[in-house]
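Job type: complex structure
Entries:
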Amino acid sequence: MTRILGPVSSRRSIRGSRRRSVLTVVAVLLALVWAFPVYWMINSAFLDKVTLQSSTPTFLPFGGSFDNFATVFGDAGFVRALGISLAVTLVTVAAAIVIAFLGALAISRFRFRGRRSFILALLLIQMLPAEGLFIAQYKMMSSVGLLNNVLGLALLYTAAVVPFTVWMLRGFVAGVPVELEEAAMVDGLSRTKAFLRITFPLLAPGLVASGVYAFLQAWNEFTVALVVMTEEQSRTLPLWLRGFVQASATRETDWGQVMAASTVVAVPVIIFFLVVQGRMSNGLVGGAVKG
Amino acid sequence: MTSTATAPPETAPAPEPTAPARPARRHTPAWLVLPSLVLLVAALGYPVGWQVVTSFQHFGMMQQFGQPPEWVGLANYASLVTDPELWVIVGRSIAFCLVCALSTVAIGLGLALLMGAVSRAGRLVLQVALLLAWAMPVVASMTVWTWIVNWRNGLLNWALERVGVDAQGHNWLVEPLSFLVVAAVIVVWMSVPFVALSIYAGLTQLSPEVLEAAEIDGAGGWKRLRHIILPLVAPVISIVLLLQLIWDLRVFTQIKLLQDAGGVANETHLLGTYIYQLGTGAGDFGMASAVSILMLLLTVAVSWYYVRSLMKEES
């Protein structure tokens, strides 16, 4: 690891190391600022209503219980929302990977008329705010009878993630030299076989990264779901969480339950994200910077 | 975490595709692009078109029930331009966006430099904390934050009491200004991790030799920062700044959920929530479309320069 600001040579190492320990303390304090809300959510999830209502906060979940989680899992709406979120997410991930892969193949392996316009369109669409489109998307979905429909929502999500996944996959496709494929063809494989046996395995990391990107987007998305999933029976998890908070607010919010609900929604995502984030941020800024 | 912002996975330049070997393959790219095109036109192109058309129509509650919309030309835009409320909201959105984006990038840069200066353990702790905050789903984050700023028994008021501020029972979400400050703090908290980790990734790409040479030449920490480090990571900083500007202009979920939590909606609208309220709330789709078009134009204006420079690289 490169030290960037500390003295590079050992000339001033004593002064340097003291400065470094001070900075390390600052870094740890700042780390607390960013981690604290996450901790606070999990901590409160274990505490009961009476404890949370007292005038002094409880910082450690001693004497806590899993009661709040039991309430959340017992909520019929939760199970239904979990099912809907899973369905929407799976359809989105599968569709996005296939469609984006084909698109990436086209722009990185072929020169064709309209290629530039296609790339320009991808870039521009990436900038379009869903918030500027949701009224029209709502009208469109309602006119074709796809409001409150899992496939309808997945269609909108796929369209939202495809531009970026094409962009990301394109880097991976371009990274596999055509010569490899050609060599395999010289050795007697058909073009399709050469592609399936040589290129495809090399692309696996890229496909996984795009799949995870699509997963996180579809799983966490709130705005579009709010607009097109208007009925209570078709809520996705984020909508259910919002509904749960609102329902709790009508009878003096039970923050323990609400935090347990948030934890249940958040923890799987956090774990998934931590596992793959290196690849993701790579694609995110990499694709954007290098183009 | 060794991922880099300046050296993406694409290490080899895109190979010049060879001329099609057989004429039959001439149509291959068309077939490959077709699914994306169909999808994007159906899910995004059509709505944009509908929105442009509707922004020239009167499309209210009656049209919801099947009456044909009535063409009104530029009337929607005219009433927008002359509507002082809209300009207040546009101004508020732009101010909110600038404050959030600039503070996010400034704090992110600070944290990135800090990560470069501290011990390995310190850096690891900071990185993990940032990743945790980054990974939180936005609805879950908002729920925790509304609990922290809750007026009755939230942590914020308790902590302020400790340090001698009389904040007991103070509701931060009732005043528009303090509502927006709370929203800005949350938005910045959510966005800093991406910025800090991206800039840090850019920093790790700097060659130690260059830094060492600068030090031997007598450049102190500050001089090295200004003349060597910042110019070298400038490309990363400008791209994350652009992304932040776009993302903070379209902020919706955070405002909507804070409004749910007891904020006064009318005086805290930003563009996103205003469009939502016009459309699904008041049923005035013509006006909502006109405001949406305005928002799209603002976004395109912000990103135009960047897209152009990328396209230049492309050709």
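Summary: Chain A has two domains: 13-67, 68-290. The first helix of chain A runs from residue 13 to 45.
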